[in-house]
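Following up on my earlier thread - several people asked me to post the actual chain instead of describing it. Fair enough. Here it is, all 314 residues.
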Amino acid sequence: MATVNNLPARRLRACAAAAIAVALSVGAAACSSSATSSGGSSAADTKSSTATKSPYQLMTIQDAAGSNPQYVAAGSQAATSAINAAGGVDGHPIQLSTCQTNNNPDTAAQCARSAVANPKVLALVDNSSSYSAQIDPILASAGVPLIGGIPFSNGDFASKIAFNSNPGALGTPAEAIMVIKQLHGNAIGTPYVDLPAGAGIKPLLQAIAGPLGGKVVGFVPIQVNAADVTPQAAAVASAHPNGIVDALLTPQMIEFIKAYRQQGGTTPFVVGTNEISPQTAQSQLSGANTNLYAAGWFDRSEEHTSELQSHHDL
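Reply from S.P.:
Thanks for posting it. Predicted structure:
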């Protein structure tokens, strides 16, 4: 542990991790670290080479209740495989390991401890975990960066070692803004995953929606393994929302929309395009996809850069 907490070791991890982060961000293109005397080489320089040097080790921590963890982990592994096939990072192959928390905060902390105890693990990447309160302090004390994580709670937004690649939990307040500005509603129904990070959605959402005239109503927890969400759908409906936002896992949100519609609820739903695509809506919500809007994290419209993309009846 002495070498992990040593400042030069922290800098070594940070520098190496920065080089790997660049490689992961460009996908299949291999790249050179900034430590080369030539100032780095292009993808063409290394495309035909093989990754034969000592490996760079990375770890990702995943919850079963994370944000589509199966897709996040698969995407990280696909990027790793493509980079290695193209020559690695300056000839170093990437080795990516996954630590599952099983939705247990103690296990999440143990995942972080195992990462920092191994001096060969240069960084954590693409975490999809609700337990930043347990993970981030351990990484920070060892100087191990978290690159490309999905921020769920305050710790992820405040941590100096977290370099997030997407808005994470901020996506839900963005959906609330859509309810207020584009659907002209002010009572925002928010069923959420019954985890600490889920409970933190309400103050975050209210802080952003409140100044615009919005109010959180029907803030109802749903357990990760809930087999029937009919009671929770009725509880949200009883709060009389005029817009419901997505703070659930994809399978939960699909079942919640079905249950809400089966009870006669016609309230508009605003969901994230990263959670429910048009294809998912058509295949899994057939007959229950009316008044369903999609809010994208990134607006690709050049004409209306300040507006969220939306689609009615996905």
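The CA atoms of residues 92 and 260 lie 52 Å apart. That should answer part of your original question.
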